[in-house]
Amino acid sequence: MTETDTESGVDQADPNAHTAADQLHSPEQNAHLLMRIFVHHFKLLTGESLLASKLSSVWYDQHKSQQDLISGLEYAKAQSWITALDQAFRLTEAGFTRASSE
Question: Cα separation of 1 and 30, whole Å?
Fold first, then answer.
């Protein structure tokens, strides 16, 4: 294969091809995953906060989409599982209880 053929093949590849992990989940499913990240990954307790950058890093490491993150955060806030701070989110008692029961 020549260099031109290789470059041509790469140019034709679709780097953003969707995988099963890219599929959107319901806001509730996303919120449940977020609560598991707060409690089981970061070991947060009620009243403790998590920087948004740390949360999104773990979220994207799991190959989740930005749309799923936003919908999950909105659902979690609506359920009073978290409260939004300036650059972070605080875990509420309800959120801790939700994640602990899973």
Answer: 45
Residues contacting residue 43 through CB under 8 Å, at least 6 positions apart = none
**Cβ atoms of 6 and 72 closer than 8 Å:** no
Cα separation of 3 and 70, whole Å? 42
> Which is nearest to 19 in space by CA: 59, 66, 63, 78?
63
pLDDT digits (tens, 9 = 90+) for 44-64: 999 999 999 999 999 999 989
| Fold entry, domain 26-100 | Arc Repressor Mutant, subunit A (1.10.10)
Answer whether 0.70 is exceeded by the pTM: yes
